[in-house]
Amino acid sequence: MFFIPPILQQPPVSLHLDLRASGKSVSPSLFGLMTEEINYSYDGGLYAELVRNRAFLDDRRRAAHWAAVGEGSSISLEQIGPDAARPTSLNVQGGVANEGYWGIPVHPHALYRLSIIASAESGGPITASIESPDGRVVYAQCRMGGLGKDWRKLTSSLRTAGDCKTTKDARLVLRTGAGQTVHFAQVSLFPETFLRRPNGNRPDLMEMLASMKPQFLRFPGGNYLEGNRVADRFPWKQTLGPIETRPGHPSPWGYRSSDGMGLLEFLQWSEDMGAKPVLAVFAGYALNGEVVKAGPGLDTYVQEALDEIEYVIGGPETTWGKRRAADGHPKPFPLECVEVGNEDGFDKSGSYEGRFVQFYDAIKAKYPNLKVIATTGGQDWLGAKFPLSRRKPDLVDEHYYASDWDMMAMASKYDTYDRKGPEVFVGEWASQGLGDPWTGREKKGPMPDMASAVADAAFMTGLERNSDIVKMACYAPLLVNLNPGGRQWAVNLIGYDALSTVGSPSYLAQKLFMTTVGDHTVAMSLSNVPNQTDGNRALPGVFASATRDSKHKLVYIKLVNALSSDQTIEFEIQGASVQSNGSTTTLHGAPRAVNALNQPLIVVPEVKHLTGLGSMFRQIIPALSVTVLTLHCDR
Length: 635
What we know:
By secondary structure, this protein is of the alpha/beta class. The protein has three domains: 13-25 and 519-633, Sandwich (Immunoglobulin-like); 33-48 and 201-292 and 333-489 and 501-514, TIM Barrel; 66-190, Sandwich (Jelly Rolls). It contains ten helices and 33 strands. An eight-stranded parallel sheet has the order 2-11-14-15-16-17-18-19. Strands 3, 4, 5, 6, 7, 8, 9 and 10 form an eight-stranded antiparallel sheet that branches. Strands 23-27-28-33-30-31 form a six-stranded antiparallel sheet. Helix 9 packs parallel to helix 10. The longest helix is centred in the C-terminal third of the chain and has 16 residues, at 450-465. The model is unreliable at 1-8 (pLDDT under 50).
């Protein structure tokens, strides 16, 4: 007889949790959202305006995204608008159509609100319709009267029938009647908005964002804050008031911003999600390298920042608090953090420390309780090259765009961080598959796949374990228009077109993490963890973090399996009695699995209810997966 040795099996991964100690306090603002105007995130995205180039300012030479409709019709641009914010008119004889942002969405029983600013020699009516590109199908129609020689704002509504076809292949058409020339200075069309806010946001996208339970919203950018030139910085004062008073400005991502998403709209957006605003203020550096150095020349921009903060939190007795109240929001917003600039480590002149000191001192003098965030000067990233020694910021904003492998390697990054601070705000981060976001864009994205979601989740376990030093974190970019020409960045969290939205696997993973955050970390240790390799380097194949919700007596255990095989996890829990019933929510799939508009459910959360749990138990965690295990305890 021959002896047949037993098959050698990998021993289970051992996870030991100790609930006897209270653990570190978890930052109550740990996970939030970051936003800027990129990938048509606002215009053509979250901001619900359906007319593209509504004020005819996108191109001085032609009426971009507008076209004459009907035999004998003609259109032309002329610089005879009603005021400085609306200097251009579109002169129309016959009919004109707007294509929207890659179409106008049509749903049954949909209500649209149309407003125009126009003048005409004669007072004939305008017929407005939402119709198919060939004009054969009219989904909704209205007639508008009241035209005159003076500029007037006219409003009306359109409603689709209950049996109309759902489509994004539609356009807005305005017909002026035979022999009449109408001068349009603005044309605006809004569908129903989230919470029915005037000048509001798309409900479907807002519901996706609100369901993540973000604790903060960082705005207005990103590069969008700075602009390509100092003159192109986010002009917050010009974004207040009625849309017809907002001239818009160039976005650094190759298209013009309407500024319909203005300062108040950002603040209301955060309010509608139950999140606190994190306000970034322009600090004197533009993307083309233009710098306003510290000193008297920077005073104007410091005052702009102080005025902006006053608009957000000032009382009704203050100049800008009174303006906010007049704009419809008497109550101040719950601002706690102000960020001075954005990625100022790229300022090769080395002027940031001086600029930061000038802003820091002015903000602290007037608002001593506000936390001031620096964009350089941390223990890593660009901090070593651009130190801040004259003032210690309350937090430092660090950004990380990395390959999946490098992002997983950073799961342990903050384990050995100096607890003397400064505290950290990871204000932008994302796994990029292979390489960085500036290379091979056409080969990556537009949204992260399952492999990147696993890398993102591995990194987030490190953020959660170290939330005594990492106080805030947010992924970027948040949004991307998936139409051809709508994307400037390789990998983005949430995608959409005019009609539909889709969440990437990373969106789903982050939603899992963000909705299961306790108030204290749980002491834990992992052993028997198999390694993964990329040929030359090795990393752990399993990542974990754990927190407890003291109020509801819950323990959340995050488990990330980056390996290509299922892993058995053996749990040992001390310091609390674990109830028999619990649950897991798991995301898993093939490495390149990704959700798409036409296949939004390739990767979806799977919920399982568990029994037989206790102080010791085992669970199998699927290959390439993100799992949240929820336990009910007696303390």
